[in-house]
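The methods section describes the discrete structure representation at length, but only in general terms. What matters is that the chain and its backbone geometry are given together, residue for residue. For illustration, here is how one protein appears when written out as sequence plus structure tokens:
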Amino acid sequence: MFVQLLAIATLAASCVYAQNSTNFTVTDVEQAFQAAKIVPDVLPSFNPTGILNVVFLDNTTGTSVNVTPGANLTREQNALRPQVFLTTNDTSLAQQTFVLAMVDPDAPTPQNPTAAQIRHLLAPGIQANGSVTSGAALVNNTPAISDFLRPTPPAGSDPHRYILLLFVQPANFTTVAPQFVNSSTPISNFNISLFAQEVGLGSPIAGNFFLTGPDANSTNSTNSTSTASGAASSSTSPASSNTPSSSMRVEINVASLTATAAFLGFVMSFL
């Protein structure tokens, strides 16, 4: 039992490190969205004020995977709902409530996106836990409207773009949103920009995205509309961290590290 606790603590520590291990700027994300044609395919424009750091736990290796915008991930790497963190110099966002969405604009294939967008996640009632200037964890306080649906691009498809967007939640969201989307609404043929306009979400304050293709042994049909996603433009590449274009950087979350260290000390006291 103690060994299991130690393993859990070690994993927690690695996830905290992964939270802050990427080094990309707001401008890098903005440029990556443009290069991948997320603007205008999904959003009419994108002017983020913060960094959305996305961390998956690999379903097979148990290691954490930090998403750099435009990164290629395997289906094993993104099978589980990710942890998300917000870093911003706008401290007024610390007390806000957010809506997190994840969409696939390329279903069933990038060349024939007749089912797009697929709604992979729509989660309101999210709040920052920690300092937003150093990377606050975003925590769900209410059930998701559409719970996380793992990427499953169909056999024969090019890789799909999976886009995560963070919006400030308006005060009347819980009463207005069900008029357009609820738990029984089909996840296909969704339009995040139209939905944002209908419910007053405004423009996303942060975003991130990754690419995922079908497994080599995938047998699901290319006509599937359940979780198909599309490929980014051939010009898409992960955001560069070699030529910084903004002073905003993902920094170490001291509070999270302290909490993890305390937990490790607690576990070690029993060994």
In short: The chain has six helices and nine strands.
